[in-house]
Design goal:
five-stranded mixed beta sheet; Arc Repressor Mutant, subunit A; Rossmann fold; alpha/beta; single chain
Length: about 190
C-alpha cells in the first residue's frame, strides 16, 4: 500500500497550516502525523531549496503519494512547480493537488494540466516583457533619461574632472561632494 505524505506551506509565522491539513483529510487522504511536513517559507523560494521540502523528498520512495492543497504550496513559479513535479514523477512519486480536483499531476491528464499552466505562465511572462519594452521605448521617445538618477550634476561632474586632473584622490573628492568613490569612478568612465 502506498504511503501518503502531506506538504503544507505557509508564508509567514502569523499563518498556520491547520486548514490545509483539514482540507487534505476532508478529501479522503489519511496521512499519518509523522508523514506531514509543514514549514514557513515564501513560495518564491524554489521547492527543492526549502529545508522542509528537501527533507521530505529524501524520505519519499517510489509508489508514495504527496498531497498538496494548491499548486502554490509547491511554488509560485510555474516552471519551478513543473520541475518539482517532474523530479518527483521520476522518483515514482505521485503528486495530488486538491485544488485541481485531486488530480495526480504525474498522470497523463496531470501532465497536460501542468503543460497548460506552464504555457500560460510563459505567455504572461512574455506579455510582461513586451509591456516593459514598450514602456521603455515610450520613455526614450519622450527624451527622458532611463536608469538611476545621477549623483552629481553636470557642473559638479566638470569640477570632479578638474580635481582629478590635478591628482586629487578619489576618496577626497568623494568626501567633498558627499558621494561614494564609485560615483566618482563613474564620472571618470563617462568622460573618457
Amino acid at each position: 500500500m502506498a504511503r501518503v505524505f502531506a506538504y503544507c506551506r505557509v508564508s509567514t509565522t502569523d499563518q498556520i497550516a491547520e486548514n490545509q491539513l483539514r482540507e487534505i483529510a476532508a478529501a479522503g487522504f489519511a496521512v499519518e502525523p509523522q508523514r506531514v511536513v509543514t514549514e514557513t517559507v515564501s513560495g518564491s523560494v524554489p521547492a527543492m531549496q526549502r529545508k522542509g521540502f528537501s527533507r521530505l523528498v529524501d524520505r519519499l520512495e517510489a509508489g508514495d503519494v504527496l498531497v498538496v492543497t494548491k499548486l502554490d504550496r509547491l511554488g509560485r513559479n510555474a516552471l519551478d512547480v513543473r520541475a518539482t513535479v517532474d523530479a518527483l514523477a521520476n522518483q515514482g512519486v505521485r503528486v495530488h493537488c486538491l485544488a485541481l480536483g485531486g488530480a495526480d499531476l504525474t498522470s497523463p491528464a496531470g501532465k497536460m494540466t501542468m503543460a497548460v499552466i506552464s504555457a500560460v505562465a510563459e505567455f504572461e511572462r512574455d506579455l510582461i516583457v513586451e509591456r516593459t519594452q514598450a514602456g521603455l521605448e515610450r520613455v526614450r521617445a519622450q527624451g527622458k533619461a532611463l536608469g538611476r538618477k545621477r549623483a552629481l550634476s553636470a557642473a559638479d561632474e566638470a569640477k570632479v574632472m578638474e580635481r582629478r586632473k590635478t591628482g586629487e584622490s578619489l576618496g577626497c573628492i568623494a568626501k567633498a561632494f558627499n558621494v561614494s568613490r564609485s560615483a566618482i569612478q563613474r564620472v571618470e568612465r563617462r568622460s573618457a
